[in-house]
Amino acid sequence: MSQMGRSIPRLEARSKVTGRAEYVHNMRVPGMLTAKIFRSTVAHGRILSIDAEEARGMEGVYAVVTGEDVRKIIPNPYFGPAFHDQPILALDKVRYVGEAVAAVLASDPHIAEAAVQTISAEYEELEPVFDEVEATLPNSPIVHDELKPAGTFADLKHLAGRKNTNIALDYQLRRGDVDKAFAAAVHVFEHEFRTQHVLHVPLESHASLAIPGEGTLTLHTSSQTPSFVRMEIARLLGWPENRVHVKVPFLGGGYGAKVYVKVEPLAVALALIVRRPVKVALTMEEQFYTITKHPVTFRIKSGVDKDGRITARKCDVYWNGGAYADIGPRVAQKTGFTAPGPYDIDNVSIDSYEVYTNRPPAGALRGFGVPQLVWAYESHTDLIARELGLDPVEYRRKNILRDGRPHATGTIMKDAGIDAVLDRIAERMNWSVAIDRGTGRIKRGRGIGIGFKASISPTTSGAIVNVSADGSVVIFTNTIDMGQGSDTAMAQLAAEVLNIDAEKVKVVHGDTDAAPYDMGTLGSRSTFHMGNAVKLAAEDARDKLVALAAEVGLPAGTNYDVQELFRKRYGMRAGNIVGVGSYVPSYTPPDPKTGQSANVTPFWMVGGAGAEVEVDTETGHVRVTKLVNVADGGKIINPKIARTQISGGAIMQLGFTLTERMEFDGGQVTNASFADYKIPGFRDVPPMESELIAANQENGPFGAKGIGESATFGVSPAIANAIHDAVGVRLTSLPIKAEAVLRALRAAQGNPLAEDEE
To answer: What are the catalytic residues?
Structure first.
């Protein structure tokens, strides 16, 4: 029986539903101290003094640690995947409200928390900058005096030493002659769209437990990237990597919040200072000060010929990266080349800017910036179609980028079912049949949106497949299962190669002493990259079994019993076969001046959505009555898990579209709780249809590829386009709350609400 296409339950399901699954938050070890964090109350300022005397004198407090204490054991205590710009605890300056300034250590977390409340700090306040466009202007306050690329990514090294700028990265893509094409265009359309600060909201917040040993360190952490954590901690300490052991149990969600390093450096520094185990476990509120999703200002301009073909597109994208770069420069770069959208456009000019501000840091969040782009370019596409009097679906078909045609980077599109996804959404939406437009105060409309994303490159994954003498199999990887079902997918891939049931395969993940390097569980790369590595490792093990069979005299091609094979070789049930696999896809770095590359990504993720809505014209309330999600997932390994991924991604983006927004007052987050920050609940989920089109990713493991982000792409523009279709108003900023819709309706009627008259 083929293991591909089996909807087997997730391997870890029983341990989770019975409460036996282990999470860092639940871990306790002898002598463990808990750290609580004192945070900045100003958005930008020089630290003049920190008064922690009362905290140090409290009964039960073991120690209070500041940035200067950290610097005594780690002389250069700055970390980050793209830039080494973030101090473990603030040094000299603070750059956003909520930045970690000091830490209190105690055996009892409640004592540590009470002690934090007694600490005070004095600052020389500096002028902050919060807006991503304003931060690029001359004479704007400067967040960092100098850019300090980490060296992890070769394509960022040229930024070293740049001073007096808030632009952490400026990515350019140039194709054809945009100016000439605009001059010749029959129509030119230009719009600006914006998105908001939102949060990942994994139900398990960040947690790390650092345990110092004799010249070694063990770190249990809620991370999506254990290999990188080990590398970064070893670099900070000046240690060889084999002295740092990183272990990751199950994750209660991640969505990009737990990639690279977050609280791990602080846990490690504190543990080494006090020479005892230290746990740093954030509260839900503290997640709002740790990592967020980039707000974006997207300016897009398109030239169209007499036949409705897009002949030119210019995009300026400003990414609000917050106070520290995290992985933001890579977001600005890797999404920048998809900013033109999934369309065949000969003349393209893209400028994508990663910008420092005095907001909480922004980084990777499900889609790695692409949902922000799709929101803009698919809203823009609908506006063009409507202005030209063309059906939005037919207009997209006229301009869609098809397999065999070059993308704006020059890379030939391959195995990207953009047209197939578009056609299937239209079918599921019954687009050819007019809808009931509604009567009275309730108006109805429908919309559509599609997008695509390039997989991250360059990147590496390694895997080990161990076949025991009884025929059972163990896979070792550093891909982290955080609910997406990667352990189950890896088991099915290995089982397919070894011709056994996937239920006979065990997966060991998240242990840097046991499993080989993996770049990280991010960017929907695991099924493709780690899947290929596991497939190669399983094939290596299979080939070794075949060789062992030949060694003991069994005829080639025999479907032999593994237990019997080992007994023949060793005289007893003993020994094992170890297969290893490493996968590194080919990649051609883009030209730094033009962004052109013949091979910019190993595969494309494609997804889209269709939405039907009802709009109450008296209140502005929007109800999504139908949401269709379609994605190209290549050959599907586990259909049930895959469909869950699609629906989950769409629901997440639904929240970012309609309700979620971090509110700020002078840099302070004012709604840092589930009481005030509204994620979708069960009652908010509309009737949904999710589908994966039949496709094949030629270079994927048995034709498979990742899908975890694909359903996020089209949701926001589909809903905005449906609202426009229903009531004729265009919302250009997210989220689309009832108040925003009502204001737009009243403004269109010439009767604006009072605040709009000012």
So the answer is: 709
